[in-house]
Each structure stands twice: as structure tokens, then as C-alpha cells.
Amino acid sequence: MWLPCGRASRRVVSSFSRRVFRSYFHVEGRRKFNVAAFMPEAAGIQGLSDRSTLQEFSVSNGESFWAAAARHRLSWISPFHTAQDCDLSRGRIKWFEGGKLNVSVNCLDRHVHTCPEKVALIWERDEPGSEVEVTYRQLLEMTCRLGNLLRRRGVKKGDCVTIYMPPCPLAVASMLACARIGAAHNVVFAGFSAEALAERIRDAHSSTVITVNQGVRGGKVIELKKTVDTAVDSCPMVQQVLVAMRTENPVAMTARDVDMEEEMLKEDVVCEPAVMDSEDVLFLLYTSGSTGKPKGLVHTQAGYLLYAALTHRYVFSYHDGDVFGCVADIGWITGHSYSVYGPLANGGTTVLFESTPIYPDPGRYWEMVQRLKINQFYGAPTAIRLLLKYGDQWVHKYDRSTLKTLGSETGGICISPRPSDPDAEIVPGMAMRPFFGIKPVLMDTEGKVLTSNNTSGALCISQPWPGMARTIHNNHQRYIETYCQPYPGYFFTGDGAYRSKEGYYQITGRLDDVINVSGHRIGTAEIEDCSAVAESACIGYSHDIKGQGVYTFVVLKKDVDVQETDLSRLLNDMVSKKIAKYACPDFIQFVHRLPKTRSGKIMRRVLRKVVERDLNGLGDLSTLDDPAAVQEIIQGHRELRGQQQQQQQQP
Predict the structure, then answer these.
(1) Is the distance from CB of 571 to CB of 536 less than 8 angstroms?
(2) Of the chain's two ends, which shows fewer C-beta atoms within 10 Å, N or C?
(3) What range(s) does the AMP-dependent synthetase/ligase domain occupy (predicted)?
(4) What is the pLDDT of residues 309-334, one digit of tens each?
């Protein structure tokens, strides 16, 4: 989980995922623990006999642990004098005060000095087999030219540049160019509507926008420049739009538009890096807006980079020479951390994935793994659920022998199956173990810490860590109210979790997704455990007897040949056995698709309004991936309710 940047992902629990985990997780032979070899950052710490003592030290002596890691992992212009100054109850989070550095130098220059021709980026373009490799030297030159161009055109230290681009080398160079000259960046997923883009531009006060003429995804051309034109018409602060050419198709250019690649060629390949304080803003990243006004979460220089680098290295057991394949879009925090900053800070080779998991066919991921010889594959549960519909044959068709690690989380990982031990047990469906320096706790409804195992509660983190978002842009009070006030002294993730008898953690979902039925909490896991179900969403509604009833939306796997009435009976039997009869769904509506944002998040707010019959209160649907899904669900809901009324009227 990258906290507080969005939802905690749940492992996909299915026979398919179990086979995936058993097949792809590489098990290294047991050997005597050598702390210096395993984690050079901790080489000077005394008394560490194994990974468990290292984990214990990182939690009980967090300040010393993170200070040692920062000194070793990052290159500093000036050393820091204070490792941390944090007070979670007040929302004050500061790390490595007094230290000065430049993030782009940490991601580029220091690697160019030692291995300039090493491949930094593999751009996996939409058409398979057309990948482009970019070396560290080339990426540094690209970054410096763009940094100089931005400076020449008036972008200053402390400004915020909005980037609306698909995953591509120029998008990465744009992020790093901002970091190089001391400007913050605001990357917006290149699929958001003009309205959503404009809202983010205005909130970030961006006078400069960077985009491309068109995007290409899933064999379709996306008119990104036209979207930007519409957006900036309502953003009077925008003075210039830098346009790169992803395709050869010309686009209309206005007086504010700049041919970015042509202007970059005029610039020098050397760009003096800005000297940045540890707590200067590195970037803003906005939530999808599915729960109201988007939140611009603020991440700063040193703490973010350190945490992204460490989690990339140790959670995925990344080693020099590996090819790291994170298929997240750069518009999300996962793409920031594990497609760009984490791998580049570690001098790694990282894949930028432009396409979709089913283009040109459902074997795209695995064909790419075979062709690029990917060693670590990092995907999203939403994508895996999608692929479940198409069966195992697409997986088995390709050679996956290069894979050492297959995983999924959201953003800067706090809880992971193997945060420290490549041989550790993996339990499908569980996030499992905390990363170094992370101390999760479960809280009950009265705000008390639950100390026993085999229990559930609200997931909080009991002490700060460097990778935390520092605030919400222009609204620190909202940050405090959202993350610090619900459980004073603890950081509230917004997620519910279960801790097993072995002490492993399982994310049960957002707390507002969990329904309390007759005193029992129910989420979607019990429904999704059915072999015929691809995904589901459970919505609570007011019930005279049970407090809340359960209305469940279910998407079936492809080619499932079962009558809906039979499947409804099967699902109810499963829930009845796992919980109790009174926890069974009152309504089960079968749908072809669930309403999702373009990031893959189910818009439960919309489903709740449908269940409550408040169709006038659906709110902003601009972030929906497929608005037609909502109309199908509304019609299906009417039919299901109508059938219920007819049954009630029968004698």
C-alpha cells in the first residue's frame, strides 16, 4: 500500500492466482544471513543476527534505521542534521531536515558516471514487438534538454508543471526535468476527461502543461491534444502547452503551443541541477475524484525517493541486471514509484507499458515477459481479474522462466508477502508482512488497539515513515481530518484489515465498502471466492430488521454456463456457510461490467446511489471508464426490483 495515496490492493484469491504464485515465485536456497550483503544500509548496525532482528530494529529504532538507509542509498549535496521531526497527531511530517539533494541526479547522473550505456527504459509501445530502449546517457541528455527548455520559457523553482502524457520516455524525461530544475510535477492520467484535467490544472496552479499530439492504446488513437485544448480553455493561468509527437498525425497548434521536440534540439545537453531541500515538493498526485473533489497529495524529495528505492529493491528482490516490469500507468502513484523513481534510483532497467492486458490478445503480458525477459512482473488485481475470464491457456502459451517475482500492491508498499525474505511463505489473498520500519496496528470501533491475532479492525500505522504524503495541496486541515484525527496518534489508512493467527495481514477493503449485517461485517471476498465470479461489489442499504441489507453486483467469468437462479442459490449457500444465513445478499444483480474509474477503482458511490434509487445524486461521472455501464446497471436494478414487487404481490 502507498499510504495515503489510494486504496490498498487485495490479492486475487482464486485457483488461477494460486497456480500463478506457485509457478512464478523463485525460491532461493537457504543460506546464512549476512546483513551487509542483504542490506548494505544496515551494515553498521550491531547485533543483527537474522532478518527478524533487522525488522525489529527498523521498527523500534526507526530514526536510526532510516537515517542509515538515507545516507547509504541517496547521494547528498549537503548531509541532513535531523532524521525526523514528526507528530502524527498534528499532521506534521518532516524527514532528513537540513539535507540537500537533487532527485534527477540520484536517478540519472550517478548511474551515467558508472554505466552510461546501460538500458534505463524499455518502452513497450502499443504494438507488440516495437519496443524502444533508452540508455541512462540518452535519458540524461533528454532530461537536460527539456530542463533547459523549461527554464528558458520561464518555469522556476517551486512552480508546478502539469503532465498529460501516456507512458513513454518523454513523459519520464518531463518528470525528471521538473525535478532537475526544482519544479514540481503534476502527472494526470492520459485518459481523464477535459473537465477532470482542468480541475487538476487549476488546483495545482500550473502555468505550463506538457502533452502529446495523440495517444495510442489498445489499437485506438486517443486525441490527447484536443483534450488539453478543451481543458486549458477554462484555465486562464495556463500560458504555454508543450506538445510532443507520439504519432505522425498533425494537430492544430495555437499561439500558446510549443513544438517541444523541435525546441529541445536547440538546448544544451548539460543542465545545472537545482539544489533542493529534503522537504521541498517533488510532485502532486491527485486522487481519481470518485469520492468528491480530487485531493492533491504532496510528496517531497528525499523521503519519497528513499522509500521508493528501498521498497523496489527489497520487496521485489531486485538485483543489478534484472528487467523490472511494472505495467502501471505513470499517472498513478504505482507508476511514479515502480515504473520511474524506484527503479531509476536503483540504476535499474524498467519497462514502460503503453498498451492494455488484452491487446492484441489476452496473452499480451506473458508474451511481453517472454520477449523482454522480465524478471519481476508487477500488475494490478483489476487486470488479473480481467484475465481470469480468458483462462490459463494464455499464460501457459509463453515462456515465463525469467520471472522471479510476480506481485501487486498499490504504490509505495507498506505491507507485502516478502518484504525481507525471498524464501518466506506466501499465502494467496493476503498482503501479509510489514516492510522495514512499518508498524501496522488494528483498531476497534472505540479507538483501542487490538493486540490479539485472528481479529479484524481498522488498519492504522503507528509511527511515521519517510514515504508518507506530507499534506493535501492547499488543504492541510483536510489531510489532518482524513488521516490523523480518526485515531489520534496513528495514521489511518481508510482500510479494514484482518490479522491471522500467524500474524499475517489481509486487507479486507475500504471501510466504507464493508457492510455491517446483524453485527457481522461482510465485504466482497466471500462472493468473489465463487469459481464462477470474476468480480463483485457489495453495497449496504437500510434494512428494518438487520440494520443493513446487502445488495450485490456480480460479474461472471466468461463462458460460465450456469443459470442465474442456480448461481444465486450457490452464492447464498457459500455466504451462509462462511458467515451465517442472515449475512446472505438480499439481492444479487448480474451485470456485464462494474462502473470503474480509469484507474480501475470500482465507483461504489455510483452503485450506492443506484441501490438507494437516488439517480439525481449520481454526481460527477467524468472519471468513469465506461459511462454506458451505469445505464445498464440502472436498467437491471429496475427489473430486479420489479420482479421482487411482483413476487410480494402474489398470494
Answers:
(1) no
(2) C
(3) 109-408
(4) 999 999 999 999 999 999 999 998 99
